[in-house]
Amino acid sequence: MAFLKYNNKNIYYEVHGEGTPLVILNGIMMSHGSWQVFLPELCKENKVILLDFLDQGKSDKMEESYKQDIQVEVLKAVIDELKLDKINLFGISYGGEVALQFALKYESYLNKLILFNTTSCTNPWLQDIGRGWINAAEDRNKEAFYNVTIPIIYSPGFYTKNIDWMNRRKDLLYKVFNEEFLTAMIRLIGSAEGYDVRNDIHNIKVNTLIVSSEYDFVTPVNEQEYIKEKIENSTYILIKDSGHASMYERPIEFLTILKGYLSIENYMKIV
């Protein structure tokens, strides 16, 4: 548990376990705490590095708008602070977008790239979903913000079957949705507007795992299929019966896929 300074901002990070470094990048509404339940398994063979982007968790808040390139440099600052030469980089959703941009700029640091529920651009459809989130955040209406952000990240079946758990989550999240959090969310959402690496990702040569969820209504399956087509050394997996928040809906599948891919040597080939 530590902080480093980047552009006079405090960046929070944690290091757990020993082994090959695995850096985990949060989704937009997540923080380092979102991964605690997975640490016992992930730390068995990996040195797990968690970090909060600017405007997330324990890292400092920004005062003005920015783009995701600053989060790429936040990640680079953490890697430099820990003196890491090679890492496995995992990102989900917003974190996957940052991971793709990091791979394009600093690919020599990567051993493997793992992308869950990730898109290669903020298209008009996704942008307008994000602007709906911004509208609710600007109104400081916790119920409205919950209703436009949370149900859509789960599959209908999971949400309905686990409605008691969802209601407990709602009570918890209402306490999180204070003015500071909502203002930070407005900036985070805005930072993804204009994101587009479609014309560049064919240049990524590192071994890459791309994972979709069948009922992802935020970053649909076709978005990951596109990335798979463009990245030469990539492997694709579809998680059935899951929404955008695949690690919470399907934790066993999530861990099996992630740990399995990390354990396989890059050079393994049959023919």
From TrEMBL:
Entry keyword Hydrolase: yes
Alphabetical keyword list: Hydrolase
Record bears the keyword Hydrolase: yes
GO MF assignments: hydrolase activity
GO CC aspect terms: membrane
Residues annotated as domain AB hydrolase-1: 21-251
PANTHER family: AB HYDROLASE SUPERFAMILY PROTEIN YCLE, MONOACYLGLYCEROL LIPASE
Protein name per its UniProtKB record: Alpha/beta hydrolase
Native source species: Clostridium sartagoforme
Lineage of origin: Bacteria, Bacillati, Bacillota, Clostridia, Eubacteriales
